[in-house]
Amino acid sequence: MAPEAIHQLGLKEVARIQAEQLAIAQKLGFADLKAFRASLKTNQKLVPTSRGQILEIYRRYIAQMEPQLPKYFGLLPKTRVEVKPVEEYREKDAAAAQYYQGTPDGTRPGAVMVNTGDYQHRTTPEMESTAYHEGVPGHHMQIAIAQTLPELPKFRQQGSYTAYVEGWALYAERLGKELGFYQDPYSDYGRLSSEMLRAVRLVLDTGVHYKHWTRQQMVDYFHEYSSEDEPDVQAETDRYIAIPGQALGYKLGQLDILRLRQQAQDELGKQYDVRAFHDEILNGGAMPLDLLDQRMTAWIAEQRASAEQGKRTN
């Protein structure tokens, strides 16, 4: 994609997500997003009461998702996933949560490592979307399945491509909404805030490297459209300056999977099966998006041909 196209796509996604955020804010009785965001910083109901509560929140969300997976997937991970606290010596630098893969034989389960340090200054709204992103149906599901695909050589079982891996995990956050979760409006707002961060990246990465924005322009845009805390704004801004293109993978990967899903629905009609679609996305392991597009386009054509052949036979 051309940088200008990515930039414009980012602006479009930011506007869409902001409109959905505003609808939630108004539903909760706020006139605008600015007032709602300000209230989040003083709402003690959104602050964890202990380290243990944070772990229980993540465990609860993963536990409610796991029995729903067969509705959307035929291919399921053989390895368990656990929720564990980040080691105390890493708390100051570690992200809110991250995934550590287990072993292919299952002797060591996958782990969602959750940062419980300084819990009094953390908030709960984004924990549900993060649990789905890092656990199931996100990173754990995709990586645990890839590790055990028998037809792939070992280097591909362990392979990683940012746009595929992170695109899938962001797509997985959205699946929770389709399955009827995010019942708490604050949690649903958290989901949108998580997606907003990924959309903002499309604007800022191309802003600095293509449109030659200043660092201050980037920071100002961040403040205007995201709910990120100041230390995160500064760190994220430096990240985009230092690693061109990396942060684009999350949103572009998610949007590509959504586009392929819509293509499958449009072309297959009544023959479309969301479980079969997801299995095909996952059962080839991680790959660049252009190869994923080729793979899925060929699969859609095969499904359509098979359906037409079945009609002729009948």
Note down, in words, how this protein is organized.
With 314 residues, the protein is mainly α. The protein has one domain. 60% of the residues lie in helices and 4% in strands. It has 13 helices and three strands, in the order αααβββαααααααααα. A three-stranded mixed beta sheet has the order 1-3-2, covered by helices on one side. α4 (127-134) crosses α7. The model has no long low-confidence stretch (mean pLDDT 96).
Brief account:
With 314 residues, the protein is mainly alpha-helical.
Strand content: under 5%
- Unreliable runs: none
Structural classification: mainly alpha
Q: Give me the number of helical elements.
A: 13
The helical percent reads: 55-70%
Major β-sheet annotation: 3 strands, mixed
Provide the succession of SSEs: HHHEEEHHHHHHHHHH
Overall geometric form? globular
Query: What is the C-alpha radius of gyration, as a whole number of Å?
Result: 20 Å
- Summed up, the domain count is 1
For this structure, the quaternary state is single chain
User: Tally of extended strands?
Assistant: 3
SSE blueprint:
Layout: H1 3-27, H2 33-40, H3 51-65, E1 81-85, E2 97-100, E3 110-114, H4 127-134, H5 139-147, H6 154-157, H7 162-178, H8 185-209, H9 215-225, H10 230-242, H11 249-268, H12 274-282, H13 289-313
Parallel strand pairs: 1-3
Antiparallel strand pairs: 2-3
Give keywords:
314 residues, mainly alpha, three-stranded mixed β-sheet, 13 helices, 3 strands, 60% helix
